[in-house]
Predict the 3D structure of the following.
Amino acid sequence: MKIWYLTHLADSPSNAPLAAAAEAQGVDWLQIDPAETTIELEPGARARIFDGEGKELQRPDVWFTRLGSSAPESSLQLVGLLESEDLPGMNRTEGIRIARDKAATLTRLGANRIEHPRTIVLRSMLALERAAAMIAGPPWVLKTAVGTQGLGVALAESREALLETAEAFFERDEVLLLQEFVAEARGRDLRLFVVGGELVGAMRRQGGEGEFRSNLHRGGRGEPVAVDDYSRELAILAARVLGLEVAGIDLLESERGPLVIEVNAAPGLAGIQSATGIDVAGAILDRLLRI
Ligand code: ADP
Ligand code: MG
């Protein structure tokens, strides 16, 4: 069994657990950066694929992607090619594309009646004044549509701060989200890890001192948590409506119940494995072998 592992992050801490799980299953696991590959489109014949060194690659039996918002959009071309040849694999391009864009994600969730924080999508500074009048605040949460690890997420504590942050964010991203601040979450959220339509692990993340973002990359800490049935079903549903076999669903515990804030198509493995002791990489391999 030969599996291609497509990732743009050569030194991600998620890579080693996956390779170890593959080895334990006797799988031939080949890590490839799709952004380094070259695709030769032969008229009337099957495309040829070359790695970064110019070596031709033979098709795998199964493919697995971990392509989050840091991977260039162009790396999805290779995944699209594998899909069009009907080679089995996960996560597929449709879900990856939606998940990397928070506006697209909340749109899809809302269309499926999944609760999320009140949000207004902004494409210009002009729209901001009106939007600020429609959402309770200050404070407001402002985020770039494409972003990860808490980097494009800010708390605006005044009108001036909101305008200033928006100016800076618009230079990085064309689309911003103005969101209600869920104060009662108090810097905590839940990360639910779904594989193959099942919840395989969950952790509560607590942001560092004075930090409203709970991302582990921003100094947050994770601990195992037992989630209720409703939150579990919500996470499984969110993964399903985005078409993701592997997904990290982030939930804020609000006064009106759990709210989905984002769905990660390439959720980190190291953090959840060390917080919960669960072999999430093993669960992914099991799913890949049954796909
Ligand atoms: P990223 O993709 O950068 O992780 P998120 O939307 O998940 O962006 O936001 C990062 C963190 O900020 C969340 O894990 C959560 O702790 C906090 N956060 C995000 N949105 C809100 C909100 N509307 N209210 C309160 N906290 C929030
Ligand atoms: Mg997040």
